[in-house]
Amino acid sequence: MKDKASQPVIEARGLNLVFQTADGPVQALKDVNLTINQGDFVSFIGPSGCGKTTFLRAIAALEHPTSGTLTVNGMPPDEARRRRAYGYVFQAAGLYPWRTIAGNIRLPLEIMGFSRAEQDERTARVLDLVELTGFGKKFPWQLSGGMQQRASIARALAFDADILLMDEPFGALDEIVRDRLNEEVLKLWARTGKTIGFVTHSIPEAVYLSTKIVVMSPRPGRITDVIDSPLPKERPLDIRDSREFIEIAHRVREGLRAGHHDD
Amino acid sequence: MNRVLPVLTVLTGIVVIWYAAAVWMNAAWVFDQAQRAGQEVTWAEVIPQTMDQPRPLLPPPHQVGAELWKGLFGQAVTSKRSLVYHGIVTLKGTMMGFGLGIVVGVLLAMAIVRFRVMDLSVMPWAIISQTVPIVALAPMIITVSSQLGLSGRDVPKAVIAAYLSFFPVLVSMVKGLRSPDQMQLDLLKTYGAGEAATFLKLRLPASMPYFFASLKVAVAASLVGTIVGELPTGAIEGLGARMLIGSQFGEPLIMWAALFAAAILAGLLILTVGLVERVARRRMGVPA
């Protein structure tokens, strides 16, 4: 178990990604080096344009690096996607309004060719995991924003990927709902042992959730600091008032500020 | 009740204006007759005489209503004088053209969304096609189809109807198939979904509201197309032919009755499409 926990799942070496835009090339990622191990909860934090989302998308093979190497489970991202290495949660829940909640969760399973019986079994299981049991037959508009986002997390979990990539999943929700969902994500992480990549622009969210915080800065998008959190795995909400928590938050803030000096 | 009242108000207004116009337009004939007979007529005598002329310039509502009633229920529905008979002929043409228009519109939209070259080459022509007056095009289509040895008027009528009805379907479906945003497309990409799955699971269902909105326009356009297809020489069946006969033989009542029969048919068609849409929307989870 100890061996598995230290295994690198995602590795980036000298990663560069340049977008060709109408205004000329934009360097979205510059010389990014990062190792994410099995079971890590990694947050990417930084101002807009720092490349945090681009990096997550590159892991998901939604963007393709211009140079450098990026491996997911030891293979190129495209290959990893074919092997269902990750589930992706976007900022908006993006549930199909014409499908029920269960129907939405079945979507990836249908595409991946799971049998009908297995679809039902898995749907029930992940609905339970995000505490939405009994809501399977509802349509998305009948659920609150927080519940919709939980359903979209269930959808990403349905096909048992080892990695969960989340791109500001709670960015559009109010703080009270966000606190609750943060707690639930931690519980989920503890229960499933997944490796999670989490993009956020909230310092408390990043510090509260992560075992590793990656601070990034813009123009060009790059990593300015990687903080291994000393916080215990078990984290009640009021850990945010502890001295350790405040110290890490302070370091993240310093990192963000340092990045901005370069402008 | 809240929805009926405004409709009734407008309807009453139309009937009042219609009667006033009928008196005004038909009075000329009454005055003319009186003058020839060397008589003087007062308006009090004129007005009743404008209400039941055999060939009025503008038949008042009750005359049209009576003629319509006679046309619909006055004889067996198989009679050549029955508006039900002619209505069914027109309905058949409309449905064929509607079906053809949907198939052509949807297929073209699929091709346009899938292939950029289709977007660049076909779309402008589709728009130009609608600027050609159908009245000018209809006789040509009929001539060509008889040149091709197609007997009967069913095919050319359907083609004319489809020519009008494919366009709203095409435009709406192009918009509908393109309606999924980048995030939804990315989501499917993360599942490794191919083009077929993306089309069936996302693009097609997302386009359905657009599709149904276009059907109402398309079915009405299809009816107009069918009637226009029945107008050119040689047609003896259908509401369009009935209108033409009425106009050529100076029987305005026949023309007006056929016109109203066509309007009723259009209303029924749109109502039916609306009903189908409601059922589909409910199945797709839209709040009622």
Automatic annotation (TrEMBL), chain A:
CDD domains: ABC_NrtD_SsuB_transporters (cd03293). The keyword Amino-acid biosynthesis does not apply. Residues 12-239 form the ABC transporter domain. Gene3D superfamilies: P-loop containing nucleotide triphosphate hydrolases. One of its GO terms (molecular function) is ATP binding. Keywords: ATP-binding, Nucleotide-binding, Transport. InterPro entries: AAA+_ATPase, ABC_transporter-like_ATP-bd, ABC_transporter-like_CS, ABC_transporter_ATP-bind, P-loop_NTPase. The keyword ATP-binding applies. Belongs to the ABC transporter superfamily. This is ABC transporter ATP-binding protein. It comes from Rhodobacter calidifons. The lineage of its organism: Bacteria, Pseudomonadati, Pseudomonadota, Alphaproteobacteria, Rhodobacterales.
